[in-house]
């Protein structure tokens, strides 16, 4: 019987792009599987249904509804992209998947989505350099005041072990590029800077240059594709407390990114000049970018000393380089102009 794969956040930037990539996959294992998409609204459901996949409109905070959906559709694998910072959602999905595994008697997999900014000192990471094949879970559990995302990472690994579900944690960096999903096609970070710069006719940067991990959306979804194929083929891969995968293709030097954006925006007549100014305050940056002030420092200035190992060992080969990224700023601007719905 063909396996059934549930994708949460299928109307989102990452989830929608993952779904689109899987639908066009050349892998026989993926092509033979049944894809089921979870979305939040009726409008999203109608849009994603146009792809020819089964769509479930579901509030993931509805535990009985989640259980019913997983058992009714006989889900074997969940790709969870809807949230990285709500432990309850991940826990509910894994518990339902565990119940399904006990009924089916076959392996079940939970592919979670986390974020690399967790592992920076600005976000409270106290351990310095970290490789994704290091004992990350133990270090996360030792943090005195863990963030909601860290708590979710811990819950994923521990609940999956309790339910005898194999968990995989894709740790997502700053992602750029035009998405390929049916609904949302823009990421958060660069489009946020683009629209803020256009609105205020000025490009701003933070007083400290962050150089966080980054990856193009096509490279990121290729990693999800690769991991899913390995799961479907029952190939042995690191899972559980060993199953962290830093999806880092290169770093993003933000001051240079802002310089490139400023020049490209000015060439289009969208800002007053090609110069880049420093944010007068974090509060102003949070207000203009419409991001939480509590996290704006970590989001805007973090670097993190991450070393990706596991994904590359599996054969992940990102195609986008730093040079390609820096040269794509005008494409990022065009994507916002084409797709921004406000």
Distance between the termini: 44 Å
Beta-strand residue percentage = 15-25%
Please tally the β strands and state the result: 14
- The structural domain count equals 2
Query: Which term fits the overall shape?
Result: globular
Please report the number of helical segments: 15
The CATH architecture name of the largest domain reads 3-Layer(aba) Sandwich
Let me know the average pLDDT. 96
User: Based on helices, strands and strand pairing, what is the structural class?
Assistant: alpha/beta
What is the highest CATH level, the class of the largest domain?
Answer: Alpha Beta
Main β-sheet description: 7 strands, parallel
CATH H level, superfamily name of the largest domain: NAD(P)-binding Rossmann-like Domain
Description:
This is NAD-dependent epimerase/dehydratase domain-containing protein. Pfam families: Epimerase. InterPro entries: Epimerase_deHydtase (IPR001509), NAD(P)-bd_dom_sf (IPR036291), NAD(P)-dependent_oxidoreduct (IPR051783). Residues 5-84 form the NAD-dependent epimerase/dehydratase domain. The protein has 342 residues and is an alpha/beta fold. It folds into two domains: 4-175 and 214-246, Rossmann fold (3-Layer(aba) Sandwich), CATH 3.40.50.720; 180-212 and 251-304 and 319-339, no CATH class. The chain has 15 helices and 14 strands. The chain has helices at 13-23, 28-31, 42-49, 63-72, 87-104, 136-141, 148-163, 189-200, 217-232, 254-267, 282-289, 293-301, 310-314, 322-326, 329-339; strands at 4-8, 34-39, 54-57, 77-80, 109-115, 130-131, 166-172, 174-176, 203-205, 213-216, 244-246, 250-251, 276-278, 306-307. The strands form four sheets. It has a seven-stranded parallel sheet with strand order 3-2-1-4-5-7-11, sandwiched between helices. A three-stranded mixed sheet has the order 8-10-12. It has a two-stranded parallel ribbon with strand order 6-14. Helix 5 links the parallel strand 4 and strand 5. Helix 1 packs across helix 9 (217-232) and helix 4 runs parallel beside helix 5. The model has no long low-confidence stretch (mean pLDDT 96).
């Amino acid at each position: 019987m063909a396996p059934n794969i549930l994708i949460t956040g299928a109307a989102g930037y990452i989830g929608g792009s993952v779904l689109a990539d899987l639908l066009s996959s050349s892998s026989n294992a993926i092509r033979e599987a049944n894809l089921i998409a979870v979305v939040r609204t009726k409008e999203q459901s109608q849009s994603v249904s146009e792809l020819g996949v089964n769509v479930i409109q579901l509030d993931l905070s509805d535990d009985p509804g989640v259980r019913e959906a997983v058992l009714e559709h006989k889900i074997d694998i969940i790709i969870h992209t809807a949230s990285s910072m709500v432990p309850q959602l991940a826990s509910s999905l894994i518990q339902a998947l565990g119940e399904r595994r006990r009924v089916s008697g076959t392996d079940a997999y939970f592919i979670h989505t986390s974020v690399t900014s967790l592992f920076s000192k600005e976000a409270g990471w106290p351990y310095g350099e970290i490789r994704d094949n290091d004992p990350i879970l133990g270090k996360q559990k030792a943090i005195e005041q863990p963030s909601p995302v860290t708590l979710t990472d811990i819950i994923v690994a521990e609940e999956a072990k309790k339910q005898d579900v194999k968990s995989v944690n894709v740790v997502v960096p700053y992602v750029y590029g035009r998405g390929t999903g049916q609904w949302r096609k823009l990421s958060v970070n660069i489009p946020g800077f683009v629209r803020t710069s256009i609105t205020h006719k000025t490009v701003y940067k933070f007083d400290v240059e962050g150089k966080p991990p980054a990856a193009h959306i096509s490279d990121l979804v290729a990693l999800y594709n690769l991991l899913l194929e390995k799961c479907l083929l029952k190939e042995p891969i690191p899972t559980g407390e060993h199953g962290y995968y830093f999806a880092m293709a290169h770093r993003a030097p933000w001051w240079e990114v802002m310089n490139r954006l400023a020049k490209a925006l000015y060439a289009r007549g969208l800002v007053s000049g090609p110069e880049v100014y420093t944010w007068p305050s974090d509060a102003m940056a949070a207000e203009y970018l419409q991001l939480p002030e509590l996290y704006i420092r970590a989001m805007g200035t973090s670097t993190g000393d991450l070393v990706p190992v596991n994904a590359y060992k599996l054969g992940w080969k990102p195609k986008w380089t730093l040079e390609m990224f820096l040269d794509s700023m005008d494409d990022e601007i065009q994507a916002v102009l084409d797709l921004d719905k406000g």
